[in-house]
Amino acid sequence: MSSLYSNQFIAIYLLGIFILLLTGCGIENNKIPTPNTPVPEVTNSLPKKTIAVQTSTQFTITSRLCNDQQGPNCTKLRLGDDYLTTSKPEKGYLYSCTGKNPNAPGSTESKITWIDFTHKTWDFLKKLSLPQGTFATETGTYTEILSDNTRQIQINNLPVDGKIGDWPMTNYPLLTNIDRNPGIPAPSNSSFSYPTNPSKAAEPTCLSLGAIGITKNGVSIYNAADARGEDALAREIVDEFGGHPARTDYHYHFIPERLDNEFLNDGHSGIVGYIHDGFPIHGYKGEGGIEMSNDDLDACHGHNHGALEYHYHATIEYPYTVGCYTGTLKHVP
How far apart are CA 289 and CA 237, in angstroms? Predict the structure, then answer.
């Protein structure tokens, strides 16, 4: 019996110590976690940074012109770097008033993937372009008044159709890694005065840097070369609508094909703009709706065509718009 009493005493003693320990830790019965009690979630208070992964296929464009089975092969366009001359006009060349300047700013050649530098060709369909985004600016303007054999045109150098890319390119590291153009398009009011009946000069004249004409979409046309004297369209990033800024001056180096949207009865492209010598520039199609190439045009990138008389044509191959001035240059930008 004494052994039984001894065991009971020990059990009661241990139970008392257990109760004292619970009380000492401050844990009450109604605060002891149970399996149904939710465990607080530990969160990181630092903001999460979202980085969009950009791939080259996001920035390529399609082309109706390249799929018409006519004209130059858009996947193997001639790179224009070797077709700038300062000596005299030549078919398929840009007759420039300014020679090459390899120290001028431009794209990073080693980052360009759509140019075959070995064969000196480039692929229009693989070239990267800045997409449309949230960038917004003023509506483009274009007004044209004919008076006393003069064509008066006023623009603000922004697209009338409102189609413009997401400038600046700072949100697109894949593109700025190739071309660090920091420009942001802004309105710039300009007036031009051209003869309604332009005449050919005794000799063609060279094209300067900067604007050489204007489109009916209200945007300036620059010649085919960049500041280095290389093929601007092949090397530099333009937006998916065909333009890019030099600082704030938005411009085209070629005619965006959407602007070639009016045609004569025989399929010949209508006028898409005017060059500074007063002669009009038509779109990509010639007589019968056939796409034009350098072979169809003279050294200044134009030709005589019946009642249309002399005019320039856009092509998808260098020099794209005009190779030299055929007419007498009277307008001073």
Answer: 30
